[in-house]
Amino acid sequence: MGPRVTITDVARRAGVSTATVSKVINERYGVASGTTTHVQAVIGQVGPKTRGVEKMLRRIGFDYAHRIDPFDGGPHFHARIDDLVLVRRMVRARVAPPGTSGAPGTAREPGAAPGRGPRYLVAPATTAAPRGFRAVAVVGAGVEGGAIALADEVRGALQVDVGVEVGVLSLDGHEPAPRGV
């Protein structure tokens, strides 16, 4: 529905009392489950001020869930991880030692200036580590033969060792490909 919607607005649109809307919002007892679902759907409707966000989210793989977002009270969108465009574009590679072809800051194309070249987001392929998700933006890396060479500093930031699998996502819109892209 958008910002500045009152309980009265929701009640009117849902065809229920303001007390019912209040009970739904505050998760109180005394409201039939079908009514709760209906009121939540009314609150979560996409309005004119959220159409742009909806369009962007749909473009990258999200769907409208027809309910309230628990964090901001607006429309809720969801997606399966495998349906997200960025996840589908990600490739997996094994970490190679520094100095191997493609390591950021170690082996650049002849004549390439430092810090120039394709940009990638690299993250451990698993988030089972105690500190959760970590990712580092690197420049000049390339996936070659299923491997990506990462400088010691990058491996340290990611807390990964040589041989560990990482996900690699192009920040420039092209696929992580063999060296020379």
Total of DSSP H or I helical runs spanning 4+ residues: 6
Structural class: alpha+beta
Biggest sheet strand order reads: 5-4-8-3-7-6
Percentage of β-strand residues: 15-25%
Tell me the count of domains: 2
Low-pLDDT windows of residues: 102-113, 177-181
Question: What is the subunit organization of this protein?
Answer: single chain
**Series of secondary-structure elements, N-terminal to C-terminal:** HHHHEEHEEEEEHE
Cα-atom radius of gyration: 23 Å
Summarize the amount of helix as a percent range.
25-40%
CATH topology of the largest domain: Barwin-like endoglucanases
Query: How would a crystallographer describe the biggest sheet?
Result: 6 strands, mixed
The top-level CATH class of the largest domain is: Mainly Beta
Structure description:
The chain is elongated. The chain is 27% helix and 20% strand. The protein has a six-stranded mixed β-sheet with strand order 5-4-8-3-7-6. It has a two-stranded antiparallel sheet with strand order 1-2. The protein has helices spanning 7-14, 18-25, 33-43, 51-59, 85-89, 152-158, and strands spanning 63-68, 75-78, 91-96, 119-124, 136-139, 143-144, 147-149, 165-170. With 181 residues, the protein is α+β, with helices and mostly antiparallel strands. The chain folds into two domains: 7-80, no CATH class; 90-170, Barwin-like endoglucanases (Beta Barrel), CATH 2.40.40.20. The chain contains six helices and eight strands; from the N terminus they run ααααββαβββββαβ.
